[in-house]
Amino acid sequence: MTTKVRGTADTRERILTAACEVIAEIGFEKIRMRMVAERAGVSTALLHYHFDTREKLFTEAMTHSFAHTALDAERDADTAPAAVVLARILRNLLPTDPELHQDWRLWQELWARALRDETTRVFAVDLYAELHAWVTGAIRRGIDSGEFAPADVDDLGTLVLSLSDGYGIRLMLRDPAVTLDTALAAVWRHVAGALGLPAELPEEPSET
Predict the structure, then answer these.
(1) Neighbours of 203 (CB within 10 A)
(2) Using one digit for the tens of pLDDT, what is the confidence trace for 69-85?
(3) Using an 8 Å Cβ cutoff, are 187 and 157 in contact?
(4) For 113-130, how does the pLDDT look when each residue is reduced to its tens digit (9 = 90+)?
(5) Could you tell me which residue ranges the HTH tetR-type domain spans (predicted)?
(6) pLDDT one-digit tens code per residue, 11-27
(7) Domains within the chain, CATH numbers bracketed
(8) Nearest alpha carbon to residue 95 among 159, 18, 175
(9) Is the Cα dihedral 170, 175, 177, 180 positive or negative?
């Protein structure tokens, strides 16, 4: 990668990271391009060069957020036990840390905007399809390797996303009836039953 191309990629990365932060903090409807430019440390003109509208910036920020989450969860998918990778994905589908809490705020902005804007609705449906493919891909790898029992992969993927959304919303609302541990345990219980896995959510292997 040339220095110029790398510099352009780094600038887009800074802008998208800043956009995720600002949208999560104040909401899409209140965001101004100037706010994102200031957070990213770039000029408004440079921001508009990369993203000419707020809507384009928002959709790119959502895609950026999901891509980073998926990359982290899949970092050793070829070598780690399939159950460990799947459990990691489940943790990344819930607001389990500050970064994922920010991601959830972005999703809430996406849902609200999708109800009022057809282009955003289509984008949201497509992004859910990517999430579904992410989850089902991990399940299929486990089945193909013999680590998981055969199952209806598409149906199980839809169930995982539906449960994660439901529990995630209640966690974001700080509903006292739901804790992160109980939410993870409940989602895993359905997954484990379908795939013939132990009922206890697997932990990350300790680093040596």
Answers:
(1) 8
(2) 888 777 887 888 999 99
(3) no
(4) 999 999 999 999 999 999
(5) 9-69
(6) 898 999 999 999 999 98
(7) 1-52 (1.10.10.60), 59-195 (1.10.357.10)
(8) 175
(9) positive
